[in-house]
Amino acid sequence: MHLVLKTLFGYLARPQLYPELIRKINKNIFDRDSAIQGKKESEIWCMQRAISQEEAIYQLTNKEYSLYKDFPKRMAKAKKNETECPVKMGGAGALDLIYALCEHTQAKNVIETGVAYGWSSLAILLSLQKRDGKLYSSDMPYLDRNNDRWVGCVIPEKLKEYWKLFTQADKESLPKIFKKQKTFDIAHYDSDKSYKGRLWAYPLLWKRIEKNGFFISDDIGDNSAFMDWVNQNKLESVIVGFEGKYVGVVKKK
Length: 253
Fold this sequence. Notes:
By secondary structure, the chain is α/β, with parallel strands linked by helices. The chain has 11 helices and 7 strands. It has a single domain (2-251), classed as Rossmann fold (3-Layer(aba) Sandwich). It has helices spanning 2-12, 18-30, 39-49, 53-61, 67-70, 72-84, 95-105, 119-128, 170-180, 195-208, 225-232, and strands at residues 109-113, 134-138, 163-166, 184-189, 209-217, 237-242, 245-251. Helix 4 runs parallel beside helix 7 (95-105) and helix 7 (95-105) packs parallel to helix 8.
């Protein structure tokens, strides 16, 4: 109950988040099962198709990439920043994969949903800086943890000139981002994990991806949204097994 009240007061203190508060209330009352809809089927589907991150990188790019080998000091400093952060947030994810696809496409414009510590943002920015590119990020603060000031804490100041952060829910942030930038080379989804939330965002992001660009979605075993989306649209996907979870990748042809 304490966390619920803390989250509620967090929303009430931020009028720009009121639309998301209304959606959250509706979801918790009428749509509580959306987060895990089709979870069992999706886990089996992912398990049968999953390959390693290294295999996926080579299959998609025909090269080998390692963020930790290319930027050992930067990644070590980022880990130190995470350790010193007083707020617990989400994990790092398949960073080599994200970095590899940015490098492979020579990405100049990238969009992501979900930031937290900023690990995926860091992987993207370390590539984009080489081409004076721009990362557009949509991120909802962890309202029960008052983490606003710590969002993106692993990103060094010198990379922030290539980064534009929008601190609202996707339904408010994405239209604002699209006004700034129409198309993207890479889209990385790691925000609303519900079934309906994903199926709302996936088509919007996919439409904006340039030819030969990539769509990446984290945690696709949580429910069947990714599986249903690729199957219904007859899209070829690569499934990556990573630290007990699954990441889905689709190339725009």
